[in-house]
Amino acid sequence: MRSNSSHQFEEGLPFAVYTVGTEMQASITRLEGFSANQLFLTFSGKGKLRLLGQDKWDIINPGTLL
CB of 23 within 8 A of CB of 47? Predict the structure, then answer.
């Protein structure tokens, strides 16, 4: 698994930090997915998410886990 974390995780832990985003991002469409499984945890701020095939955008608020 790729990670940008220098922390050594306990053997067998099923996830690792891949990246942390703090900047504004333009909308992205990933027709073939992403190279890693993703878990989003929002501490502050908010954003919009639309799953492929959906017309409606969901608002992701602070304290959201997706």
Answer: no
| Token pair belonging to 34 | 């992403």
- pLDDT by residue (tens digit) across 7-65? 565 666 667 777 777 777 788 888 888 887 788 888 888 888 888 888 999 998 999 98
Angle at Cα 7 formed by Cα 18 and Cα 38, nearest 5°?
A: 20
**Residue 24 three-state SS:** coil
> 15: which residues sit within 8 A by CB, 6+ positions away?
1, 37, 39
Decide: pTM greater than 0.85: no
* H-run or E-run covering 60: strand 58-60
- The token duo for 11 is 């053997």
